[in-house]
Specification:
28% of the residues lie in helices and 23% in strands. The chain contains six helices and nine strands; from the N terminus they run αααβββββαβαβββα. Helix 1 crosses helix 2, helix 1 crosses helix 3 and helix 4 packs parallel to helix 5.
């Protein structure tokens, strides 16, 4: 078992050594590597070398500092600033919503993702200032268990936010939504159908003594890795 764990690293070192030490045709690299590992067929060494070299060159997604584990998705969410700068939501290496994409708006900017395969199922914004309360609540309640929910605030998101709406987010793992006040900034990543506390959530409290943009607080941002939804059964259990 220990040899299996060391082999990928050794394979990368060997490949780099061969390539840098000898000015040879790339096709000869596989043959020389196979000889060094003591195997007759170079095809036996290719899968190990390719897998190890690929893993060593993987770049972090969504501007994170580290690569997420294979059973996690990378994300980064940035709230809007006052009523001027829109929010940004990145998931699994792709920007889903931003001012540049011209698909953000006042209120709750939301991205709904299939927790098992990472497919974005819906994205848009719920206008908490002028939207219909019943329609907003119905939209939130319609989110199925297991769906990953990414949220970024823009403008004031409390104007028509009811306690019932807040409780829906509590059911997704939010611990700050109940304390959200007018002009506060908020970013959140959770999962529908779970009351487990989400570690991916931040709030920027609006305070006249600390606000950065006049009557508005600074932008707030979260970034990290969120686990995949493993099975349908677990979606309902969480």
């Amino acid at each position: 078992m220990r040899n299996q764990g060391i082999l990928p690293l050794v394979a990368v070192v060997v490949l780099l050594f061969i390539t840098s030490r000898f000015a040879i045709n790339p096709f000869d690299v596989w043959e020389k590597a196979a000889n060094m590992f003591g195997v007759d067929d170079e095809d036996q060494i290719k899968p190990t070398l390719k897998k190890a070299f690929s893993a060593s060159t993987t770049e972090p997604k969504c501007s994170l500092s580290t690569v997420c584990p294979p059973d996690h998705f990378a994300l980064q969410i940035t709230s809007g600033a006052a009523t001027v700068v829109g929010p940004k939501i990145c998931f699994d290496g792709k920007t889903i919503m931003s001012t540049v994409l011209n698909n953000v708006g006042p209120g709750l900017n939301i991205v709904l993702v299939n927790g098992r395969n990472g497919k974005v199922e819906k994205h848009g914004y719920l206008n908490i200032n002028s939207g219909n309360e019943k329609d907003i609540l119905a939209y939130l309640k319609d989110i199925k268990p297991g769906i990953i929910v990414l949220v970024a605030s823009f403008d004031d998101v409390t104007t028509k936010m009811t306690d019932e709406m807040r409780e829906v987010f509590v059911g997704m793992g939010s611990t700050l939504i109940r304390s959200l006040k007018p002009r506060d900034g908020w970013v959140f990543a959770g999962r529908a159908g779970t009351e487990n506390k989400s570690l991916l959530e931040k709030q920027a409290v609006s305070d006249v003594d600390t606000n950065v943009y006049g009557m508005w607080p600074e932008m707030v941002q979260i970034g990290g890795c969120i686990p995949k939804t493993l099975t349908e059964h677990k979606e309902h259990e969480e």
